[in-house]
Structures are given as C-alpha cells and as structure tokens.
Specification:
The chain has 234 residues and is an alpha+beta fold. The chain contains nine helices and seven strands; from the N terminus they run ββαβββββαααααααα. β3 and β4 form a beta hairpin. The structure holds iron/sulfur cluster (2 copies) and FE2/S2 (inorganic) cluster.
Length: 234
C-alpha cells in the first residue's frame, strides 16, 4: 500500500507549506491521479488539486511527483518502483493558490506575450488560407502543447532569471513563427531576439525531459536561435 506525502498550503490559514501523509489502496497500474481522487473522495475532502480530462489532454494536473514535474494522470504507481512513499508537490516557480493548485496567470501572460494567434499576411487569399502537409509538418510537434506548465516550472533558468519568458512561451512562439499562413515572421523573430527571449536558455534540456507531450522544446528553441543568427538581427 503506497504512502502519499502531499504538500499542503492554504493561504488563508497557513504561513508555510506543510506535508500530510495518506495511505491508499492502490495497484501498480493505478495512476497517481486515481490515488489522489481516492484520497480526496474517501479520506480528506479538503485536499486541493486540479484535474479534468484524466487522459493527458487538458494539461490541468501538472505537479511535482517525487521531485520531477509530470501529469498525475500520465504517471502510474509502478513508475515510482519500490518507493514506499510518493511525494506530491505543486509545480515549482509558480505561486501556490492551495495545496497542489498553482496560479497560472503569469504563465499564460508569458505565452500571450508571444502573440499566439495568426496575423494575416498583407495579401491574404480570398477564401481560406491553405496549408500543405509539408508546411504543417514544420509545426506538428509543437501544436501538441497542452499548456501544462511542466517545462517552465522545471527550467533551472527560470529560477535564476524570472524575466526569461520560459520554454512554454517559446514553444508557442515557434508554433506561429513557422506557420506558413502567418504574416508576421520578422516581427516575431525580433521579439524572440529581445534579452528575455530565446537567449537566456542554457540548454539544460529539463523542459524536453519533462514535457508530457514529448515536444522537442530545447531543439525548437535552438532552431529559433539559429534563425535569428541567419537573419543577422542585431
Ligand atoms: S533547455 Fe532552455 S528552456 Fe529548457 S530547461 Fe533548459 S534552459 Fe530552460
Ligand atoms: S511544452 Fe510540453 S511541458 Fe511545456 S506546457 Fe507544453 S505540453 Fe506542457
Ligand atoms: S487531467 Fe487532463 S491532462 Fe491530466
């Protein structure tokens, strides 16, 4: 029977984070999210965490599981081997709202700063803007992003330099920079060339390691660095 040590924090009553341990009846193939649900429904209704789809689609249950950021619905009890205790903590770098629930506003604002939408080209087609399969392939990896925040919270540079826009925002920048239907390529590249854009990334690859959608985050960031150099931006 695995034990779950869970970080608890209620800003209305706690000065700092404390940990509570729960024992749960669980099979090796049970998901960490199943265990959390059992704790909440059968033992402690005050526990706070987010979940929705339970199938790795909505991105709402990102958290730190035994020290590594992941989705609780994608990790199984057996993934943690013989560990007698599994520790669940909120995503680091984010402000905790309650227990495992973090404030996503700042994270989403960083993504918003990358204009994550299509800007029409000067001479748009009369009907819809078509995209060939080849053009689509350029962005097919990054469009899998579900905004879970795991990459940004795992990035060591974010902790040293909170102004760095972070890997998730750069994934969204890549998604529109290389969209064949977008008309703002140079402006987007100039934005990425700003001091808090791509350059603070030091290739730690933590973002790539934790991404639950297996997006090649670091490779995409490096690709954009090369693009900036190719265009000889100052
Ligand atoms: S590769 Fe770059 S963005 Fe990813 S974790 Fe490392 S420093 Fe952060
Ligand atoms: S790039 Fe991956 S880890 Fe980062 S927010 Fe998107 S899905 Fe989550
Ligand atoms: S609950 Fe939706 S991704 Fe895990």
């Amino acid at each position: 029977m695995p034990r779950f040590r869970i970080a608890r924090f209620d800003p209305e009553s706690d000065k700092e984070t404390w940990y509570k341990t729960y024992e749960v009846e669980a099979m090796p193939r049970d998901r960490i999210l199943d265990c959390l649900n059992r704790i909440k429904w059968e033992q402690d209704g005050t526990l706070g965490y987010r979940m929705s789809c339970a199938h790795g689609v909505c991105g709402s249950d990102g958290m730190r599981i035994n020290g590594v950021c992941a989705l609780a619905c994608q990790k199984l009890v057996k993934d943690y081997g013989d560990a007698e205790e599994i520790t669940l903590e909120p995503l680091p770098f984010f402000t905790v709202r309650k227990d495992l629930i973090v404030d996503m506003d700042d994270f989403l604002e960083r993504i918003g700063s990358m204009s994550p939408y299509l800007v029409r080209a000067k001479n748009p087609p009369e009907k819809e803007s078509l995209q060939s399969p080849e053009e689509h392939r350029k962005v097919q990896d990054v469009i899998r992003c579900i905004l879970c925040g795991c990459c940004t919270s795992a990035c060591p540079v974010m902790r040293e330099n909170p102004d760095y826009v972070g890997p998730a925002a750069l994934v969204w920048a890549y998604r529109y920079l290389y969209d064949s239907r977008d008309g703002d390529f140079l402006k987007r590249l100039e934005k990425l060339n700003e001091p808090d854009g791509v350059w603070p990334c030091e290739n730690f690859f933590e973002c790539t390691r934790v991404c639950p959608k297996e997006i090649p985050v670091t490779k995409s960031i490096n690709f954009m660095k090369r693009e900036i150099k190719k265009h000889e931006l100052p």
